[in-house]
Give the backbone structure.
Amino acid sequence: MNTTLKLLVMFSSTIVTFIYSPTLLANSLTHDKKPNILWLFVEDISPNLGNDGEKLVHTPNLDALANKGTKFTNTIMPAPVCSALRSAIMTGMMQTTLGVHNHHSARTKESEFYLPEHIKTVPELFKKAGYFTFNSGKDDYNFSYDRKDLYDGDYLVHPLYGKSGVPIDWNARKNKKQPFFGQIQLKGGKHIFSSKFEDKVKLPIDRSKITLPPYYPNDPVVVEQWGRYLESLQITDREVGDIIQRLKDDGELENTLVFFFADHGTRFLRHKQFLYEGGIKVPFIAYWKGNPQVVTPGNRDELISGLDISATSLAVAGIDIPDYFEGKNLFSGMYKAKDYVISARDRCDFTIDRIRSVRSQRFKYIRNFFPERSGMQPSYRDEWELTNVTRKLFTDGKLNEIQAKHFLPTREPEELYDLENDPYEIFNLAKDPAFSTALIEHRDILTKWIKDTDDKGQYPEREESLKLMLGIWGATAINPEFDLLRAKYPDLAGSQYYLKNERFKKIKNSPNN
C-alpha cells in the first residue's frame, strides 16, 4: 500500500470513529474534560407530561428539555416495581438473570445476597474511572452491598429502602474539577402522600376535565386521585427546573448530560406492579446543553429498554461497557432499535406472583404463571381508599366488563394485545385465530429467553427472603408459599420483625412501597 493510500485509509477510519463515537465527539467539544452524568430518577409516573400530549398538565421545564434534547417516546422498563427495576438499572442486567427480581430482598443479615464478584454496579464503574458518585434519595436494591463502595459522601441508610439521610449533590465534591455521576431521586407520583400536598400545588387540575383510561370507573375518588397524580407531575416539573438552574448557577450545566426518567408507571391499580403499558412504559428525556451534537434535539420513537440508560451513561463518559451489560449506547451511530423488550414481575412485598411480557413495536404478549390468582390478590394497596372504593364498585356490580376484568378471581394464562389498534390493552387476542402467528412468535421469544437467561423466577424463592415478608406482614401474607413457613416457624408471623424490631414498625404504611 503506498503512502497516499495509507493516509487516506487512516483519515477515513478517523472520520468513521468520530461519527460513531459520542465519547470522542464529547471530549473534542469540551477540551477533553470528562462530562458529568446526572440522573433525575423519578418515582411512579407514566408518559403524562405536557410534552406527551396531556393538555391538562403544565410542565414547562420538562417540555423545554424535551424540545432542546432527545425525547425517547417508547421506553420500556424491565420491571414495574422499584427495587427490581433499580437492581436491573444498577447492574445493567435483567433482574431475573441475577436473582434480584423479588421486591424487597436482601434486607436483613439472614437474607443477605451478594452479586457475583465480576458484576460491578454503575456507580462502582464510575468511581473506578475517577468520578465523584452520589445518590440523593433511596437506593432500594435487592442485593447486599457496602454503600461506600458505590457512593461518595454521607450515607445514612433506611433498613428497607436504603434512603439517604442527608441530601447530597455535586457540591459535596472536594475537588470541583472532578467529574460526577449523580442520581437525584424525585418523588414524582408519591408527592400525593405528602401532608402538605395542597400547598405545593400552584396550578390545580380541573377535575371536571379529566378523562380516565377506560379501565377505570368514573368515580369521584378515582377522578380525584388521578387529578392529584397530574398535579404531582407539575410539582416534579418545578423540581427539575430548580435542579437545572442550580447546575447553571454552579457552572456545570454545559458539561452535564441530564437523563430524566421514571422507574416505572403510576401507582394506580393495573399500572404499577403489572406489565401493561401503564406499569412499564415511562417518560425518558436526555438533555445536554453544551453538546447538542451528541444529544440531538428531536423525538426518537424506536423501541428501547431502560437498560440502555445504564450503558449509554458509561459510554458517554468514555467508560467501557462491560460485556455482561444488556443495554446499548443510544447515542452510538451503530445503535440498532430493539425488536422486543422483555419485562418481568415477581414477588412484590408479600404478594407472590410471576408475570413475563414481550413488548414488540406492535404487540404486547403477557404470560401469567399464576392464572389461578387474581390480578387483585391481597397486596399492600388494600389499605388505599382508591382500592377499597373500586373493589366495592366491583362487588356491587357497578363496574363494566372492562373495568371489572382486573378484579376477577382468575386471569388468562396468556394475553396478546395489538398496541397500534388497542393502546389501552383491553382486547385480549390470545385466542383469536387471526393473530395466532403473532401469538406463537412472541410465546417462542419468551420461552427461549427464559431458557437462555436461566430466568430465576422459575425457581422457588429462598426461605430467608420469604421469612422477612412473613415477619413484617403476618396474617396478611396469604399465598400458599407462606403456609410452609408458618408451619415451620409458628412464632414468626408478625412478631420477629414487625412487632419486635423498631426499624420495621412503619414499613407497612410507608409511601415508599
User: Anything to note?
Assistant: The CA atoms of residues 215 and 401 lie 9 Å apart. Residues 3-345 form a domain with the Alkaline Phosphatase, subunit A fold (CATH 3.40.720.10).
